[in-house]
Design brief:
CATH topology of the largest domain: Ferritin
Number of strands: 0
Low-confidence stretches: none
Number of helices: 8
CATH superfamily of the largest domain: Ferritin, core subunit, four-helix bundle
Largest sheet: none
CATH architecture of the largest domain: Up-down Bundle
CATH class of the largest domain: Mainly Alpha
Shape: flat
Mean pLDDT: 96
Distance between the termini: 32 Å
Helix content: over 70%
Structural class: mainly alpha
Length: 279
């Protein structure tokens, strides 16, 4: 099997992990705070780790990680229905990893996929248990369909955060050295925090998080990556500043101001990083 064929298979795995992450986070945010939502977020973090393993392997093979998102199952009006969909997502993952393990001849990659497969089988059991727990507790969708200026601003923020998470992760995998890679991943983690904060606020305000991304920068040269990252952070910091002045809710105003300050910090990090990088 050619390296390019292995890359294609691994990118399908990445796309599946990507879909699972967003599906599980949407379910966790929409059921509100509690033990079950925390457990689901923990599983989503494990899927993020899988994505990281796979993306690094793709780069080692000379490929570029795919950040297209696979198919999600978002139907269902109560948490038990969502958990059934999450069980099915794990069935899909198990089936795909078992198939790819058979197809890929590389021993090291087989071992990685077997390790991920073990996690997916565990997740499958977890979600089966969550179906019963959700039924017993009568857990419901607490998000709503409210649409006003505040939910519009929140969904704008969610879209931005999701976009830069993907962009910074992609740039981290293509970075020329470990220092840039770590900095990009650190800022991506910070943006993941923002995504969670904004999504939880959205549900609290009676809205529904819309986790969709806008255009991703696919620059290959480090300077091009960092120029794009600096540009988007400057624009977004200004937008969060504007949002903080526009809303009247003190807690929301404080949140937007905090995120604005983080984005300005990112500008400084990327600017300093640019001085150390050569194309």
């Amino acid at each position: 099997m050619k390296k390019t064929d292995i890359v294609d298979l691994l990118n399908k795995d990445i796309e599946g992990e990507h879909a699972a992450i967003i599906q599980y986070l949407m379910h966790a945010y929409s059921m509100g705070e509690g033990e079950l939502s925390c457990e689901i977020e923990a599983i989503a973090r494990e899927e993020m780790r899988h994505l990281d393993f796979l993306a690094e392997t793709v780069v080692e093979l000379g490929g570029v990680p795919s950040f297209h998102r696979g198919e999600m199952r978002m139907s269902g009006k109560d948490v038990a229905s969502w958990m059934k969909n999450d069980v099915l997502a794990e069935v899909d993952a198990i089936t795909m990893y078992e198939e790819h393990i058979k197809l890929i001849p590389d021993t090291k990659i087989k071992r990685l996929l077997e390790r991920i497969l073990s996690d997916e089988k565990s997740h499958h059991g977890d979600f089966q248990k969550f179906v019963s727990e959700a039924k017993e507790e009568g857990l419901k969708d607490i998000s709503g369909n409210k649409q006003d200026k505040v939910t519009e601003i929140l969904n704008w923020g969610i879209e931005h955060e999701y976009t830069v998470i993907i962009q910074y992760l992609l740039h981290s995998y293509l970075a020329p050295n470990d220092h840039m890679r770590k900095e990009m991943q650190d800022q991506a983690i910070n943006e993941m925090q923002h995504l969670g904060w904004l999504s939880e606020k959205m549900v609290g305000k009676g809205g529904r998080p819309r986790i969709e991304h806008s255009k991703i920068n696919h620059a290959v040269k480090p300077s091009g990556m960092l120029n794009a990252d600096i540009k988007i952070e400057k624009a977004v910091a200004a937008k969060y500043d504007e949002a903080a002045k526009e809303v009247t809710d003190p807690k929301l105003k404080k949140l937007f101001t905090r995120i604005r300050d983080h984005e300005l910090y990112h500008v400084k990090v990327f600017t300093d990083l640019k001085k150390t990088i050569k194309d």
